[in-house]
Amino acid sequence: MKQQGKKILIVDDEASIREMIAVALEMAGYECLEASNTQDAYSIIVDENPQMVLLDWMLPGTSGLEFARRLKRDDRTAETPIIMLTAKGEEDNKILGLEAGADDYITKPFSPRELVARLKAVLRRSTPQGIEDPITVDGLILDPVCHRVSANDAPLDIGPTEYRLLQFFMTHQERAYSRTQLLDQVWGGNVYVEERTVDVHIRRLRKALGSDFEHLIQTVRGTGYRFSTKAS
Amino acid sequence: MKQQGKKILIVDDEASIREMIAVALEMAGYECLEASNTQDAYSIIVDENPQMVLLDWMLPGTSGLEFARRLKRDDRTAETPIIMLTAKGEEDNKILGLEAGADDYITKPFSPRELVARLKAVLRRSTPQGIEDPITVDGLILDPVCHRVSANDAPLDIGPTEYRLLQFFMTHQERAYSRTQLLDQVWGGNVYVEERTVDVHIRRLRKALGSDFEHLIQTVRGTGYRFSTKAS
DNA sequence: TGTAAGTATGACAGATATGTGACATTGGCT
DNA sequence: AGCCAATGTCACATATCTGTCATACTTACA
Prior knowledge:
CATH architecture of the largest domain in chain A: 3-Layer(aba) Sandwich
CATH class of the largest domain in chain A: Alpha Beta
CATH superfamily of the largest domain in chain A: Response regulator
Radius of gyration of chain A: 23 Å
Number of strands of chain A: 12
Largest interface: A-B, 27 and 30 residues
Shape of chain A: elongated
Oligomer: homodimer
Strand order of the largest sheet of chain A: 2-1-3-4-5
Order of helices and strands of chain A: EHEHEHEHEHEEEEHEHHEE
Helix content of chain A: 25-40%
Distance between the termini of chain A: 37 Å
Strand content of chain A: 15-25%
């Protein structure tokens, strides 16, 4: 499954509440999906694979509680974290909610800030990251763990984009990439940026690598660029 | 003592709760031991040497609090990390619990996922060896036993959070950490705090370290921070 | 050798990320 | 109650990065 933006599904039967939450989340940089009932919610979860579900406790038809349980039993949806929303005074239900598989529980009314904070906390817990080994080419070392690049043991001062670009090249050596492919891979698919921008960053990367290593990044005229240890 | 599987001892007088926890932990790949009272618990700890004890606050006979204190005083058991479990509304006791030697504190009800997350965090933090030994980098000394930091033999005035932050950095040198990771590791997984708060504490720590040592804490632009003796 | 297309390079202004001081709040302590 | 240290947040100051241009070079090929 492709890595995607931070999509959050809001399930609540009251449109005004969905709207309020959506505004808060969008301001925080999340993309929102909405559903007013569990049927819609289920299809959306399966189709869109959101990173999280905000689930109202009271829903027409299947209750939120019931729905949470069902999601956790279904392999396709079990991994998706759930935050339950509930009206105040139902504190006792908290246990039920959490036992049903919810990852957190927020009592209405809540501030947008609290919602976003807890949402982040839950996302943080549920997104583990892999460990990577350093990549070496001649005396050029890129260490993803330390987030460092060094050339013959001298640390290189390199910007974020150049770092990603170099990392991509070092993990995809010997092959030529078009500017478009590089924009997709290094900048991330849906950004609209001039192709020429790639040239500029290639230039910056070469400069940062210095005369000892800039030859590793070769221009493939009419096509794009290539990272290679062999001379062209 | 030999390194062994991830055995977790659950101490609670209610069988249903023990069971619920056990299921959650086993799904996460841990082996579970159970005890309903402190006598049993003590024998199991000595005999089986579990990697961690989940200890209910309320227990018949000796209270969980009392028991935690006893474990920490006993050389044979002092090394075993403890997470206290408590019912809601007893937040005030948190300090007591932590002072008694507990390594973390979870309020019931909690989600299985939260439990596992915090459990992992504690296991990660509790390095079996050397937590007693002072860590030195150049003239900077952090002494976990005295809970003190000195720079070139001059004691440093440093707040609790800055201390934990520095301790984390000194035990995890060279590696770059995102603000989120630092919040997890230093603040503890389940706090809802702005990411920028990390910046402020980094600032305070740098200030406390003074011009001789502040360079040890490096900014990794676009990513987070790193503690390193090497120049960036 | 002239020409057109493809690339390299330096400059720049807007966008982002981080540094920093100040403030309100909290909880322990006297 | 009043004080004090610690903490989290904010607003503003700085620093650094990024995308885009305009222009200078190269290369391929007629």
